Amino acid sequence: MADSAPHPLASPSSYSDSERYFISSGKKLSFQPIPTSIYRLAQTTESIKTKGTLWQLNPSASDDPSTTGNTFDVVSNLPLFAARYDNPLVSGNDSKTIYWEFEITSLGYSGTPAGLAFGFVVKDAGSEAIASNSGGSLRPYDQAAAPKSLSGPSILWNSVDGGVYENGTKVPDSEFQAKVGDIVGIGVTFQFDPSIPMIPTRDVNDNPNAKAGKFSKSLDTKGNKTTRVAEVKDLVPVPTRVFVTINGEERRIEGDVARAFVSGVADVFPVLMVFGPGVGGKVKIGEAVNFGGEGGLADAQLAAKGNSAHAGHKKSRFSKVFKIPADAWFGGIGSGMGTSSG
């Protein structure tokens, strides 16, 4: 078993040009290896033709007892929200929405308990040890009676009761039932708060050959493309809203859900959890998603297309940034200057 002791949250990372492009577009994301041969995430002809990320979850063809009563959770290689770039108080945009879907094709075998949960996780400092452990995150399901990732705090939709679970605790009145054939989506919107001072940022030069993937891009005095980035110590929480869609119809979740960890100060990763044999479906991220526009949340459809299509972003009236020398920090309204740490 992996270490189950609590860990502090992992610090938000910096990312290369190409990684920022994939984060913002939701393209070509992969997941940790599944720690049981009963399941595998595979690419199909449909996957190859899809602009976003599409993985087929393939279970065994039989009721294999080795997975009965076991559960695993796997996390994507890159986040969908990179706090040092995507926090609206860094980018200056009115909002940033992250969203993905799971199309359910199977929920197990008759008489054998099985189900899935999926959503978002903020990695803790012990998550890499879990990923590298030979046993992975496979564990008896009775140790996770409610869906809860071993990689860190999570916000998950659960197929068993349709509930949304915030780090293992069910959110009141969140019962959004779905069945085989349905497509379920879950998203988080990070919102700009004009009452909070802009976060100090600096510009980093981009590879001139890299695809544009961030709305925080600007040009320096020499015409080079740059991206705003903040120091970890300067990040502050912003208002967030969690939502679920069932076949494109939005189901709002009331109250402050996941504000303790999904708040704009940490990177947020897609996570998929499965327990029991016979669960199947399609992971849909980026332009692979089916719904989220009419009949659902408009921002979800925009988020599916990546930042190149104004994914959940609108320019804020507070987004103007005043240039100062390259070795200094700068911010928007209400921010002071300090020295750069590189």
Automatic annotation (TrEMBL):
InterPro entries: B30.2/SPRY_sf. It comes from the Eukaryota. This is SPRY domain-containing protein.
